[in-house]
Write a structure and sequence with these properties.
The chain is α/β, with parallel strands linked by helices. It has 15 helices and 15 strands.
Length: 398
């Protein structure tokens, strides 16, 4: 990639301030980490910095605290890091700025790690406050941004700090931007995008951008209902963004003009309630009765979509095909997950764009058979929209 990376800097003996994404889920009762994927994703960069002879100061947010919120402390993450990095001294500072952070940072030796307390305990973090960014920057001698999941936010730790220290991206950020960038700019073809999830309003800009790049676009999930309505069909009590029906009509017409194969559901699985134990039926997409709601793509659609995915050379997928949290309405999503795994086996590059799609491929048991699973749902969406990510833009070019 064009941005400066950790391999471009002399880090020996330096205190390296690293923005990581340790926004991990915690058990509400015990406070224990329930999924350490994001912590493990940071390990290649951490190990590379240790090997380079650096002292490492890690900073991250966790959750959406309003001021100091003890149950959103990053201290459990420090404990997990000690387990993942045996033999490495991992310290924890009770704040991310001030005396607690400064004294420990100054005494940190090469080969040691300091994890700072939750950045969002300070409102200045999200405000990208200049003085707060300078306080953070004073802790290190070099800045590394390895938090792709937060790269779409112009916060003090993701954008502000980069203006006060020699800066680079970490290995995870380099990989995320490289993989997604190649998919958008130089994909092996056929290039297939699969978009699902609840709201089409979240994906309109993504669809508009992808229609200039893909060969096929497959649409499922609750967002497909707006496209079904745009074809003049009744969607019963399904989730529907009625005000966006004209926009869906425009996108269908745009796909046709640009020669992109936009696939919409032919059949759907409907339920008489939004519940796992709802009565269910499979009907044509043009046959949804009043009082029922679309909760998954149907088996005919799933088979058609799967065939397109399996024949692709590049696949980008963001968003489930239905309410996969309910087992009776998970079959469409599982079918696409298995098709993506088969595409990988066929030699394709398959990319899961974070968020619920990650849970979907894990639920289907094929996460290990996907080329790349992004750590940032919101960031990957904005990247697919073609938007500049502030956390990446702040890093100098090589």
């Amino acid at each position: 990639m064009a941005k400066r990376t950790i391999n471009d800097l002399d880090l020996k003996g330096k205190r390296v301030l690293v923005r990581v994404d340790f926004n991990v889920p915690l058990d509400k009762k015990t406070g224990a980490i329930t999924d350490d994927t994001r912590v493990r994703a940071s390990l290649p960069t951490i190990r590379a910095l240790l090997d380079a002879g650096a002292a490492i100061i890690l900073m991250s947010h966790l959750g959406r605290p309003k001021g100091v919120t003890p149950n959103l402390s990053l201290e459990p993450v420090a404990g997990r890091l000690r387990e993942l990095l045996p033999g490495v001294s991992v310290h924890f500072a009770s704040d991310c700025v001030g005396e607690a952070a400064e004294s420990t940072a100054q005494s940190l030796q090469p080969g040691q790690i300091l994890l700072l307390e939750n950045l969002r305990f300070h409102p200045e973090e999200e405000a990208n406050d200049e003085n707060f960014a300078k306080q953070l920057a004073s802790l290190g001698e070099v800045y590394v941004n390895d938090a792709f999941g937060s790269a779409h936010r112009a916060h003090a730790s993701t954008e502000g700090v980069a203006h006060y220290l020699p800066s680079a991206v970490g290995l995870l950020m380099e990989k995320e931007v490289g993989v997604l960038g190649k998919a958008l700019e130089d994909p092996a073809r056929p290039f297939v995008a699969v978009l699902g999830g609840a709201k089409v309003s979240d994906k309109m800009a993504v669809i508009t951008n992808l229609l200039t790049k893909v060969d096929s676009l497959l649409i499922g999930g609750g967002m497909a209902n707006t496209f079904i309505a745009a074809q003049g069909y009744n969607v019963g009590d399904s989730l529907l963004e009625k005000d966006l029906v004209p926009e869906a009509e425009r996108l269908i017409a745009q796909a046709r003009r640009q020669g992109v194969s936009m696939l919409l559901p032919d059949d759907v699985v409907i339920g008489d309630a939004f519940a796992a134990d709802a009565q269910q039926r499979t009907v044509g997409a043009n046959e949804v009765p009043d009082g029922w709601r679309i909760l998954d793509i149907g088996p005919q659609t799933a088979a058609k979509y799967a065939a397109v995915v399996e024949g692709a050379r590049t696949v980008v997928w963001n968003g489930p095909m239905g309410v996969f949290e309910f087992a009776p309405f998970a079959e469409g999503t599982v079918a696409l997950a298995k098709a993506a795994a088969q595409a990988t086996a066929n030699g394709a590059t398959t990319i899961i764009g974070g968020g619920d799609s990650v849970a979907a491929v894990e639920q289907a048991g094929v996460a290990g058979q996907i080329s790349h699973i992004s750590t940032g749902g919101g960031a990957s969406l904005e990247f697919l929209e073609g938007r500049v990510l502030p956390g990446v833009a702040a890093i100098p070019e090589r």
